[in-house]
Amino acid sequence: MRTRKLLTTVGLLCALGSALSACKETEALKGLSSSDKAAQTQAQDPQGAACNTSETTLEPLTAPPENTPIFEQFNFQPHAIAVDKGVVTVKTNAYTFTFCQGDRTWSIASHPVETEAYDPDQYMANLANPEYDQVEVEGDRYEYRARLEANWLREQTGTSAQPSADSATSSPSSESTAEDTVYFELKTPDGKSLRQPLYTLSELKAANLGASLGVPSIVGSVATKEAIWFAATTTQGEGDSGFASLIRYSLKTGEITVQRPEEIQGDQITAIALTPNLETAAAPESTGESTSESTDESIDEPTGEPTGEPSAESTANITLWLGTQRSGEGNPYLPADGLIAYQPMTKTLQRYSITNSPLIGAIPTELAVSDDQLWVGTGNGICQIEWQSIDQAQGWDCWRFAFTAALPQAGIDLYASSQADQPAATLTEPEAEVLWANWKLADGAEDPDLPPKVTRYEVVYKPGFEVQLSQGGYKTSNSVARQFAGGEPVYWPGYTWHWAGDRFARSLDEVSQNHFGGGPYGLVKSNISTGPNLDQVAIRGDFDLLNLEANTTTVRHYSGWIPADGLQVYPSLIPTQSAPNKPNPLDQFIPDLPTSQGP
């Protein structure tokens, strides 16, 4: 049984506003440099200054198993963050990153990759009767899960419409019906089993979110003295979807209420954290976008009737922090709204994304709160945020994942594109920063789906290459065209890159890691497909936009491709710096682009 132990949040929330002195202890750190912060932190927390410096083993990146995309070795999405006695531990698929708050340094260690054998029968059984997660609050244990009851699932598993013996007991008013429905189920320490309908298939279709219910799950839970909050999400793809739901269980009354923030419907919630919403926190300015009030979909337990609002005492002084992403068929990680700060009482939210804040990645997958610090783990790096001053640049410290390979002393051939046959230059530097990996079809390979194939690394190349792409741009005039362009007002070859203040950049978790059609799509010279391996000039490299017309795009990209054979690539964490804030050159070309009704 999976277990998540939630520490009582008195310490995490500084007693939820009743003992603010603990929250204000680090006020003097705001606006200081990293070295000054380290000295101040060590003086205030000598215990946290002493970190384990024992030797660790760091292995290079390894190619993924057979029949796995070559770029999976760059999947560094964190799946656990822990903060304990001045030490922050961030775990990814193959590496553990440890931060010593005393001297503000990172160490990295390799660990075995965890894999699970796929059993189709067991998978279907788990869908019909998923395991419970656990949370401890004030020494009491609660068990919870989200559960899908659907006709197709009953047919495939041979189960009835009634809850199984292991599921929560349903009241007469919430018994299963023929309609596909998602439920939240909770077992309390006193032996009660509560069962709450979250939404139905007809509600999903009416909201135009999908054609079928995805598999639901509870991605996390947080608690105060008055309530436990749960974040429910769902799988997406091939028409499957669901409502992003925030579920509140009152520890005093046993009441369950549900909120579905309208602005993030269509998103998946990846993580949840909670902080007090202190009056001393800065008002939203340039880095966060305030949005209008969302709809309240509160449902009383167990009758299923709409309920009143949670009391002001229990919700007015908290903020729920949420990570968001989207996914589709073959695309497990797609950017959505970034980091969300949601106010349950006013039902308003703020977005902190890679384009409007210092956030280092597009998809936050793990969150953790320790005193006045919010730790955010993304697929592109890690941020330490003073959540009380999140709208000020000095409230952020971020580190990005970087990958380095030592190069041969004699130099190595550099190619201007992933499939180029002739080298364009020779790299003679001692090392190179590696951005991505792709297959190059070897000479004589007639079938692109069969070997021989060789691996090439995309690496940073500061002189860059100027190239004219055969694709141009157009303005998106309706919702269909804008959705195809990733929500942007213009579709062009670089729409999946973001303006980073001085160049267009693409973080690790902005790369659509589609597992079909040859993998991630970058900048290509021609729109003629030669098989699944397109001749890409850049997949993650930065570039300057030199010209954009209806049929062509001219860029200078600052990356090239080198043979991967014999090279060893090691990960690291690099502190980020504030980028220049230059005008986005795309703006000057938009007025002259044509308007299109669709892709």
Model description:
- This protein is mainly β.
- It folds into two domains: 78-402, no CATH class; 407-596, no CATH class.
- Helix content is 9%, strand content 37%.
- The chain is built from nine helices and 38 strands.
- The strands form ten sheets. Strands 21, 22, 23, 24, 27, 28, 35, 36 and 37 form a nine-stranded antiparallel sheet that branches. Strands 15, 16, 17, 18, 19 and 20 form a six-stranded antiparallel sheet that branches. Strands 1-2-3-4 form a four-stranded antiparallel sheet, with no helix packed on it.
- It is globular, with a radius of gyration of 25 Å.
- Mean pLDDT is 82; it is low at 1-49, 164-176 and 278-313.
- Residues 1-21 form the signal peptide.
- Residues 33-52, 154-180, 281-313, 575-599 are annotated as: Disordered.
- Residues 159-180, 281-293 have a biased composition (Low complexity).
- Residues 294-303 have a biased composition (Acidic residues).
- Keywords: Signal.
Summed up, the helix count is 9
Rg is 25 Å
Task: Determine the N-to-C terminus distance.
Answer: 47 Å
Q: What is the number of strand segments?
A: 38
Q: Quick one: biggest sheet? A: 9 strands, antiparallel
The domain tally reads 2
Shape: globular
Strand content: 35-45%
* Poorly predicted spans: 1-49, 164-176, 278-313
How would you name the oligomeric state of the polypeptide chains in this document? single chain
Region (Disordered): 33-52, 154-180, 281-313, 575-599
Biased composition (Low complexity): 159-180, 281-293
Biased composition (Acidic residues): 294-303
Keywords: Signal
